[in-house]
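[audit] Reproducing an earlier prediction to check determinism. Same input, same settings, fresh worker. If the tokens differ from the archived copy the diff job will pick it up downstream; this log only records the rerun itself.
[audit] input (133 residues):
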Amino acid sequence: MAVFCSHSPEETLLWAEEYAKSLRGGDVVLLDGPMGAGKTVLAKGIARGLGIGAEVTSPTYAYLNSYEGRLFHFDCYRVTSERQAVELGFLDYFDAGGICLVEWSENIKGLLPENVKRVAISGSGDEIREIRS
């Protein structure tokens, strides 16, 4: 497991942009970390690394944002059950050929594919972030 210490959102963006180069269509990446750790910043950097020009925003209230059919960003914080995730159509995206980024994956753990990647980020506020991949 690789560890990177980020001292700013800009460093996190750059790290995520590089990390994106290791991803392939069909990859499911779990973004772990507390509220305010920078999971959406990671998603922005990954999108930039994939050449996606759209503005990446947190899908907290939408549950899922799709970018060019190549990147799917899930936020499962408000998902109350795996059944709800199925009803929202989440499973369709795991096989759509794009890259899936999943925040708060513990809320849908029984639905996740077996081979997932994980990026864990610790820290919040003005703290230095430790990113593990």
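[audit] rerun output stored. Observation attached for the diff report: The beta strands are 3-6, 28-32, 64-67, 71-75, 99-103, 117-122, 129-132.
[audit] end
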